[in-house]
Structure formats: structure tokens, C-alpha cells
Amino acid sequence: MSFLDLFFPKFCRHCGESFKDGLSNILCAACFDSIKPYADPRCGHCGISLPPGAFEGSVRARCLDCGGGDYALEGTRAFGAYAGPLRLAHHAFKFEGMESLARKLAGRMAGEIPDSFWDGVAALVPVPLSPERERERGYHPARLLARTLAASAGKPLGDWLRKKVSTPAQMSLPREKRLRSLRGVFAYAGPREIPSSLVLVDDVLTTGATLEECAKTLRAAGCPRVRAVVFGRTPRNFHGDPASEPL
User: Fold this and answer.
1) Does the pLDDT value for residue 26 go beyond 70?
2) Contact criterion met (CB below 8 Å) for 132 and 167
């Protein structure tokens, strides 16, 4: 046992036990490894996992939240449910300045994405932050995740979207207000000849409003196929802000 372990033991935020190996000083190895990725069948739009047989007789493989509407975003590959150890890991990564967690979190994401998902994909595009928000935080969480995912998939990373204006914290707003507050705030900043298939990368999907607006911007620029990958998908009854909700 090291000097630090003896005098400054680490306690897992999920199970409360002291530990030596795990996700930094956040989760013990057992709790980090216990994060369950979504399994099939999944909603074809938001990526949430549903019980076996949920889509029998359905025209579209969609959850109740996503319904039968038409979207600019073709579909999302979500790693897991925004709860328990996954939520604790994300909170530390995004709100506690622990940018070094990006590689491990993105590594878990990459391990659950089949090679076929990347067929034809030209580049990964992180959902942008406003310059003010990035300066305030000191790093860009979506870009850090996208960097590891791009390296794993053997695809380029393209900062091809920019956020023209700052907006209120989106996770504290209902979907209708999010859509209004995000309308027209993203701009395309990529190559003149936009590829035919791109994948957006973000940390968490709640209502999907941000990803949908980004997809609209890329579609308007000429990309016919836009999908997304995210670390967490919030439960249907979640309407709070992960920076302020009790963990």
C-alpha cells in the first residue's frame, strides 16, 4: 500500500467502499466495470434499450419518446443509461474538471460500437460549445470523447460545426424550449464538399434537441446521412440538470 493510499484512501462514490484501482478517485474497479451498456433491441432514433419483442409489428423501431416523427438525425448509438455509476463518471468528467477520464469513458463506448457502424462514415464531428463556455470549462468534453472514438474507428475528427451564440444550460429546459433556444445557433464550418455520412459525438442525450439541431445544420450543408454516438441516454422522467441534481 502506498503512502497516499494509507493516509488518503479513496472511497467509491457508488458503493462507498475504499479502493486502490478504479476510475481515478471516483469509482472502484468493480463499480466502473458494472456499468451495463445498452443491449438490443434499441430505439432506432435515441438508442435506448427496450425489452425483447418491443418492436414486433412496428413500422419503425422507435421508443415512445421518439414516436413516429421525421428527424434530421438518422439515429443514435447510446452507450448506456444515464444513471448509477455511469452518471457519477460523467458528472466527474464534465462538471468536476476531470478531463483525463475521457479516454476511459470513450474506450468503453468504442468497445460497444460494432465495426459495421463506421462503414461509409467520413468523419466524427463533436457537438460544439460556445467559445465562452469552453473558456469557462477549460476543455471541450464532446471533442475529447470524439478524439478517442475517432482514433479507435480509424476515422478523422472534424470540428465542422460552430456555435454562434451562447445558450442557457439545455438540460434544465423542457424539449420545446430547447428547440426554440437552439434554433439557428449552429453553423457549418467544414469543407466546401461535405461528405455524405457523418457521425456527431456528444456526452449525453436527454431530449435530443441539441443533436437534432446539429443534424439539421449538417443536412442543410449537404450531408444526407447524419447519425450520433453518446455516452449516456437520460431516463424518460429526467428533467433536471446533472450539475445540480443529487447523485
Assistant:
1) yes
2) no
